[in-house]
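Per reviewer request, we include the raw input and output of the structure prediction for the construct analysed in the revised manuscript.
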Amino acid sequence: MVRDYWVGMSSLVLVGVALACGGRAENQGDGATEPGLAEPSGSPGSVAPSRPGVSAPATAAPDSPVSAPIPPRPGEQPPDQPTLDPSVPTEEPATEEPATEEPPPEEPPTEEPLNPNCDPPETVIELVDQASVDEIAGCETLRGIWVHGPLDLRPLASLRRVEQWGIILDGVSSLAGLEGLEETGSLRFWSTTVQSLSQLSSLRHVGFLELAATELVDLSGLELVTSIGSLTISGNTRLESLAGLAVAGDMARIDVLSNPVLRDINSLTRITSVQQLAISDNLAFDQPLAFDRLTSLGALLVSYNPSLRSGPGFPLITTVGSVGVYDNSALESVTGFSTVTTAYWLQFARNPNLARLDLSQLVEVSSELEVFDNPLLDGATLASLASIPSYMNRVAPDQTTTIQEPCPWTTDEVCDELHGFCAERSDPACAPIFP
C-alpha cells in the first residue's frame, strides 16, 4: 500500500512537470514509455522511484522531462547524505583555539655607560692627586697606572686587572682599595711606606714584581700568587725574608740586591727554571740555598755577600750558561756545580776563604774559565781545572794574586795584559799592541 502511494505520487509529479512544459507529454501518444525510464511490471504507466541513497541519472535522453527530486520518507535521510545512527554520538566539529598573542620580547636591561676614563688614549694613567684617582672609579680593567704619593686608593675597589704596563706605586702609604686586584702586567713598589701586602690577597699573576726601598719585613699576603715572570728585590732596609712568596715554575729573572738584613731567599727554591739569578750585596745573607727542582739555569751571579759561607746547590743542573761567584769574603765552599758537565762561561774570583770548589764532572767550557785570587784552593784542584778545554782557560797557578808574573799563558794569541791577568810586557801576544 505504501508502495502504491509513492508510485501514485511520482506519477502526479511527472504529470505536473509535463503540463508546465507546454503539454509536451501529449505528443508522446498514449501508453508510450518515456525514454530513459523503465516501466515497472504490474503498474502500467507508472515510473519506478529511485532507491534511497541513489541519485537520479545525471543526464536524460533528449526531449525527456526532467525528474523532480523525490522527497524523503519520514525518518529517512535525503539522498547523497550518510545515514545517521542515533546510537552513535556525533563528533562536534573541532574548534580552533583563538591564537594567543605572544608578549613582546623583553628589552635587555640598559647597561650603565662605561667610564670613558677607563680606556684613555694614553698608555699609563698618572694619578697625581685625589681627583685623578676619583676619575677612574669603577674601572675593572686598565692598561697602566702610576700612583704618585700617598693617595687614597679606595675608589679603585672595582679594579681587577691592569694589563700591559701594570702598576707603579711611588711613595704610596696604603694599599686599601686594591683588595680585588687579581692580575697585573707589573707591580712596582718604589719608596713606599707600606709595611704589609695583606691587602693584595686576591692577587694571582704578576708579570714583573719589583720591591725597591720599601719598609716591608716579609712578603706575607702574596701566598696565592702562582706565577711571577721576573722579580727584583732591592734596597729594602727592613726586609728579613721572602716568607709569603710561594711562587713556582718558570721565571725569567730574579735579582736580590742590596737588602742589608735579608738572610735567605728559600721561598724561591721551588722554581724549575730561571734565565738569570743574581744574589748580590746582601750583608746578612747567610743561609745555604738548595734549588732542588731547578732543571735549567741560564746565568748565575753570587757576589758581595760577606756573610755567605756556602754556595747555592743545583743537583739537577748539567749544563749552565754563565756563572760568576766572586767577592764573597766568608765563602768557604762551592759544591753546587758537581753535576755540571758543560758551561759557557765560568768565573770564581776573589773569594779569600774559598777552600773547596767542586767541578769534578766538568768537561768543557766553550768561552772562558777563570779561577784566580782564591788563595785557599789546593794545587790538585787547580791542576784539574787547568786541563779543562776552553776557548780561554785562565786558571791561575798563583791564587794569591790576580796579576800573574811571569805570564803563564804565552802560547796563545790572547793579550792577557788587556784582561788584567798578566804583568806588563810579560805576554808576547801583547807586543803588537804595546810595542
